[in-house]
Amino acid sequence: MERMQQVVGRARAAFNSGRSRPLEFRIQQLKALERMVQEKEKEILAALHADLHKVGGGPNAYSHEILGVLAELALMKEKLPSWAAPQHVKKNLMTMRDEAYIGYEPLGVVLVIGAWNYPFVLVMQPLIGAIAAGNAVVVKPSEVSENTAQLVAELLPQYLDRELYPVVTGGVPETTELLAQRFDHILYTGNTAVGKIVMAAAAKHLTPVTLELGGKSPCYIDKDCDLAVACRRITWGKYMNCGQTCIAPDYILCDPSIQGKVVENIKATLQEFYGEDVKSSPDYERIINKRHFKRVLGLLEGQKIAHGGEADEASCFIAPTILTDVSPESKVMEEEIFGPVLPIVPVKSVEEAIEFINHREKPLALYVFSNNKQLIKRVISQTSSGGVTGNDVIMHFFLSTLPFGGVGHSGMGAYHGKHSFETFSHRRACLIKDLKMESTNKMRYPPVSQKKV
Amino acid sequence: NPYAGLVSHLRASWLSGKTRPMEYRMAQLEALGRFLDEKKQEILEATDLDMGKPSFEAYFTEILLCKNELNTTLNNLCHWMKDEYVEKNLVLQLDSAFIRKDPYGVVLIMAPWNYPIQLVLVPLIGAIAAGNCVIIKPSEISKNTERLLAETLSCYLDTDCFAVVTGGVQETTRLLENKFDYIFFTGSPRVGRIVMTAAAKHLTPVTLELGGKNPCYVSDTCDLSNVARRVAWGRFFNAGQTCIAPDYLLCTLEMQEKLMPALREAITEFFGSNPKESPDFGRIVGDKQFRRLRALLCSGRVAIGGQTDEAERYIAPTVLADVQPSDPAMQEEIFGPILPIVVVANMDEAIDFINARPRPLAIYAFSCDSKVVNQVLERTSSGGFCGNDTLMHFTLNSLPFGGIGNSGLGKYHGKFTFDTFSHHRGCLHRNMGLEALNTPRYPPYTQQKMGLLTATFEVKRKGTCTLL
C-alpha cells in the first residue's frame, strides 16, 4: 500500500505545484516523448518482437506502434494552443454584456492502464492526450507484455518529468493497490470483466473513467460485393497481430451460398500474405502466452475446420484458421476470440444479420461489406457499436478525427486526437459579470409582482 | 426483481426502433411542452406544498427554464441529429468519415427534490431528443410533485417508451439492479457513489450531478450593496436548497463588518422585516432536513436572522459571522438559508482555503478588480464559475453544467444534454474499389512498402522544409 500511495502522492504534489499546466511545459514534454520514440525506435521494436513476435523493423509493428504515436504527437503539438484556448459561447439576452466561455482545464492525476496486444501504442496514445491536457499521469503498462513494460519503465523517466509521469509495473496485486488510490480520471484498455472492477474501484472516489474494452466485432458480407477485395481486407484485419486486435473482425455473417467462395478467397489471400508455410513467414505473429494459446485452441473443439487448425505449443503458434457453418451456441461464439480463428455463421438475409447482432452485446467495431450503399447505411442505422468501418476493417481506428471507443459492454468514453484532449480535460463553464449594471438584475429579486414575470 | 418486466417492456420498444425517427422525438417533446403549459397550476401547487416554493421561483425554475431547454432542443434537434462529417487524412480522402449520434437505449433518470420538475424534465428532454426510452425516478421526498409526475406524465408521453417509477430507498435499490444503457443521477455525493457502483456491474455509463460547498470570495474592492444583493439572492433562493447556492463567504474581517448591514438591507428589501410573512421566501422540505439545519446555527455567531419555527419548517434568512472551519456549518453542504462567513486575511488565503477542500460545483468571486476575479478563477478548480454574481451561469444553456471530483462527472444543458444521452459512433464508409491504394499495408512486408506507408500515414509537422 505504501509504495502506490507514495507514487500517486508525489504525482499529485507535482500536479498541485502547477508546473504541468503551462502550454510551453506540455509541449516540451511532448517533444521529449517524440525524441524518445525516434531515438529508441530499435529498442521499442525489439521489445515488441520479444513480446509478440512482432516483426522487428517490419511495417506492422512500425506502422501500428511507432508511426501512430508519432502522428499523434505531431497533431497534439500543432493543435494544442487552439484546443486549449477558452471557447466563447453564444449568450442570451440576460448575459449579453458578460463574458461567457468554456475553459479547458486539467483534471489532475490521471491513471492509464495499458493492454498487452499493442503494448506500446495503448500506453503512449492515452499518455500523450493526458499530458497535452495538462495532467500528471501514472502509467501502468500490462505485465503480460513484460518486455515492453520494462522498457517503458526504463525510458519514460529518462525523457519526461519523473514526478509527474511515473511508471508503475506489476501484476494484479499491484494494480489492485493502485486502483485503491484516488485519481481524477482512469483510462483502462482491456477486457470487460476487469473493466467492471476498474469502474467499481473508480466509483469509490467518483472518478470518471474511459473504458476501452472489447467484444465480438461482427463482419457482415453481402452477396452483392466484390468478394476478392472484401476477403483481402478482412484477412488483413483478422490475422494481423495473430488476431489479437480489439477491433479485429471477430466473426463473419454471410449467406450460405457464398460461404465457400469466402473461404476460397481468404485462403488465396493468406497464401499471398504469408506464403506456403505460414510458420516460417517473418510477417506472422504468435499468441502472447501459453494460457491464451490453450484458450484459443480450445475454441476449435467440435468445429468444421475449412482451413488451418495447425498449432505448435512450444512457439505458441496457431495457423490462420477458418471455421464454417458455425453454430451461434458454440463456445467460439461465446467469447471474444482474440486469436487467428475466423468463424463463419451463415445467415439468410441482412435482416437476420441485424437481428443476430442486436441480440448480442454491443461490439467495439462493426463491419459491413456491400456494393449497395443503402444496405450499408441500413446496417449502421439499425445496429449499435463503438465504431464502424464499411467496406473495410480496422481503418476507422486510424482517423483521429473520429472518436475511438466502445458502447455497452465494449466500453464507455472515447479518445484519439482532439477526443483525447477533451477526455482528459475538465470543461469549466465561466460567466464573468460586471459588478455594476445592477438595474438589469432587479427583475429577478423579490419582492415580486406579476409585472416582473 | 420487481422492475424487470417494466425494463424489458421498454427495451422491447427500444429494439422496435420506435424512438429513432426525428418526428417521433419531436412529437414527444411537443407533448412535454403541453404538459408544462396545461399543468402549470398543478406544478406551482405541488412545489408549494412540497417546500413552500414561492410561485415566482417555481415559475422561473420549473416552467420557464424547462421551456427554454425544450425550445432550444426543438429548434436545433434536426441539426444535432445529423451525422457530423470529420476532416480526413490522406489515405481516406475518397471515403466518407462521420460521427453518428446513436441513442443508448433504455436510460434511467434519477431526480432530487429541490427543483423536482426541472431536474426531471431537463435531462428527460435531452434523453428523448437523443432517441432513448426513459425510466424516470423522481424523489419521494417531494411527494406532491412525485405524485403529479406519476399521474400525469403518462397522459402526455408514449407509455411504451417512457415510464415513471415511484418509491423510496428500497425501491430505488431494486431498480438499480437492472441493466440500463445510461444513468443520469442528480443528488448527493454519497448516493452518487452507490449509483456508480451499481452502474459498474453492468458497465453502464453515468452522469452524476452532485454537490459540495460552493465558496464565495468577496474582495475588499467591491460595490457593497450589489454584492450583498446578488449573494443574498443566490443564497436564499428556494430557502437555500440549491446545489449551486453560494454555501459560505470568504472575506476579510473588515469586509465582514461592512457587508453585514448591506446584507441586512438586501434581506429586508427582498423579504420585508418579517420574512416569515413574505410569500417570496420558501420553507425547508422536511422535518429531518429542518432539524439538521437548525443544528448548524450554533456555528460562529448569528449576526442576521437565526429564528426558526418547526411547525412551519421555517428558518429565517440567516448570516453567521466569525465562523471557524471546525464549526458544524463548515462540515457539510448547508442546503438551507444559512450563510456562514469565514474570515481570511487576503485573497491568497481564500484561494488556499478553497483548494484545501473537495472541488465544488461552483465557485463565486466578487471584485471590482477583474484581475482578482481572474486570479480566483485560474488558481482554483470547480464545476463552473461565476464572477460577480451567483447562480447565473446555470441559466445560459450554451455553457455546460456539471461538477468535477466530488461534485460530479459529466455535464448537460442545451446541446450538452443531447450529447450526454448519445453514443458518438465513429463511422468510416470506404470505397470498395481502388484496392491498389491498400497494397502498402499488406504482407509480405518490404522496405518499399514501409516507405510508402510512412509517406501516406505520417502527419508532417507544418513549416518543415521538404526538399526531396
From TrEMBL, chain A:
Annotated GO CC locations: endoplasmic reticulum membrane
Pfam families: Aldedh
Main EC class the enzyme belongs to: oxidoreductase
The reaction(s) this protein catalyses: tetradecanal + NAD(+) + H2O = tetradecanoate + NADH + 2 H(+); a fatty aldehyde + NAD(+) + H2O = a fatty acid + NADH + 2 H(+); decanal + NAD(+) + H2O = decanoate + NADH + 2 H(+); (2E)-hexadecenal + NAD(+) + H2O = (E)-hexadec-2-enoate + NADH + 2 H(+)
Single GO MF annotation: farnesal dehydrogenase (NAD+) activity
Domain Aldehyde dehydrogenase residues, every copy: 3-427
Membrane topology, as annotated: Single-pass membrane protein
Localization per record: Endoplasmic reticulum membrane; Microsome membrane
Active site: E212, C246
Enzyme Commission number(s): 1.2.1.3, 1.2.1.94
Phosphoprotein found in the keyword field: yes
Database matches in InterPro entries: Ald_DH/histidinol_DH (IPR016161), Ald_DH_C (IPR016163), Ald_DH_CS_CYS (IPR016160), Ald_DH_CS_GLU (IPR029510), Ald_DH_N (IPR016162), Aldehyde_DH_dom (IPR015590), Aldehyde_DH_NAD(P) (IPR012394)
Listed name of the protein: Aldehyde dehydrogenase family 3 member A2
TrEMBL record, chain B:
GO aspect biological process, one term: aldehyde metabolic process
Annotated transmembrane regions: none
Active site: E209, C243
Annotated keywords: NAD, Oxidoreductase
Record carries keyword Electron transport: no
MF-aspect GO terms: 3-chloroallyl aldehyde dehydrogenase activity; aldehyde dehydrogenase (NAD+) activity
CC annotations in GO: cytoplasm
One Pfam family it belongs to: Aldedh
InterPro entries membership: Ald_DH/histidinol_DH (IPR016161), Ald_DH_C (IPR016163), Ald_DH_CS_CYS (IPR016160), Ald_DH_CS_GLU (IPR029510), Ald_DH_N (IPR016162), Aldehyde_DH_dom (IPR015590), Aldehyde_DH_NAD(P) (IPR012394)
Aldehyde dehydrogenase domain span: 19-422
Family named by the database record: Belongs to the aldehyde dehydrogenase family.
Protein name per UniProt: AL3B1 dehydrogenase
